[in-house]
Structure formats: C-alpha cells, structure tokens
Amino acid sequence: MAMLSNLDLIRRVPLFSLLTADQAQSIADSVVKRRFKRGELIVEQGTKSNALFILLNGRARVLTADSRGREVILAVLQPGDYVGEMSLIDNEPHSATVRAEVQTDMLVLGRSDFARGLPEPSSLAYGILRGLVARLRNADRQIESLALLDVYGRVARTLLDMAEEEKGVKIIRGKVSRQDMAKVVGASREMVSRVMKDLEDKGVIETLENGSVVIKERLQHD
C-alpha cells in the first residue's frame, strides 16, 4: 500500500469510480491512510466520528448490541466497502459499531471534505439521501429487535416508537391494530394480543375508548 499514491488507491474504490479527474484528485488530496489492528473499533454505536472510512484491505464487522452487551452482526465489510456515511449525512450518532476483524487498512475522509461532494442541503437529492438514511436506521433497529428481543420486548419497543409525547404523557393516537403490530414484530396476532392484555392488566398501558393507547409506566424493551 505504501508504494501507491492516494489517487491510485481511490481509483480502486467503486465509490469513486464515476468521479472526474479533478474530483478524484481533490479526494486524493483530502484522504489520509489509517491502519486498524484486529479487534480495534473503527466507529462506535452511539458516538460520532465525523469521517468516512473506506476499506482498502482487511475485513470488518458491523455490529449492534443491546444494553446487556448481546451483539448482532448486521454486515461484514470487505475491501471497497465504506462506513460512517449515515452519520455524516444526517448528523446523528452511529447506529452500529464497526470492528476490524483482522488488520485493516483504510482511507479516512473528513466531514468537511465529504460534505463538498454532497448536493446542496436545500436540494431534492439531499432530501432523498436523508430519507434513505432514516430508512436504513429503522431497518438496523428492526433487525436488532428481531434478533435480540422476545415478543414482549418487540411489542414494547414498537409501542414506544409509535408514541408521541404530549404534556409529559406518551400516547399513541388512533387504534393500535393487533394485526399490523404482529406483522411489525414478527409474531402471531394472538401472541401480540396476549402481550398487550398483560401490559394493560399490569397498568403499564391503558387503551382509551377511541382506541388510542396511553403509556402510563416505563416500558422495558431490552
């Protein structure tokens, strides 16, 4: 790797394959090389690193974990793959942790240099990018729920995601369909109904006459 210029290196990355010569040179002048040891964290879930990381060689795992430390592997990254773009686009913390599986060499592109390659914030393209990132974050969260939580936990998390806060009270406006809930959490309608009834019996939630649901106590979902 040491004998290749940054320009040579980025020309090998599919992400940069459509850049003009000037654009490619600009990226080449901005990236820095970094080596990660086996087991070293590249990005950490819940934090911001303000950079795009592009794998040159090696291998890395994309992981998400619950509060008990249980992990789910969302993806295995190979040379040419990249991470960190979601946080750079929506300015939110990383939705997953990325850990080097073996010694891994990367190119690192800082936030300001990455931003120069994005559409204008007021453009339709940028709005679509943010929408796609939001969908990816939701997908990661759903995969984590299906892998790590039981039906009770998945129902609780879904209720919290659906709720809006009004004057310090969490409420879900409109009838909560048990059938739709079952499709979201990957369980039978009967199982979801039993969980909802149990939550009501314990006074954790209350279903109003119009079908809206009030969350009266903190729901445990992890």
From TrEMBL:
Residues 15-118 form the Cyclic nucleotide-binding domain. Residues 149-218 form the HTH crp-type domain. The keyword Transcription applies. Keywords: DNA-binding, Transcription, Transcription regulation. InterPro entries: cNMP-bd_dom, cNMP-bd_dom_sf, Env_Response_Regulators, HTH_CRP, RmlC-like_jellyroll, Tscrpt_reg_HTH_Crp-type_CS, WH-like_DNA-bd_sf, WH_DNA-bd_sf. It holds the Pfam family HTH_Crp_2. The keyword Transcription applies. PANTHER family: CRP FAMILY TRANSCRIPTIONAL REGULATORY PROTEIN, HTH-TYPE TRANSCRIPTIONAL REGULATOR ARCR. This is Crp/Fnr family transcriptional regulator. It comes from Roseateles amylovorans.
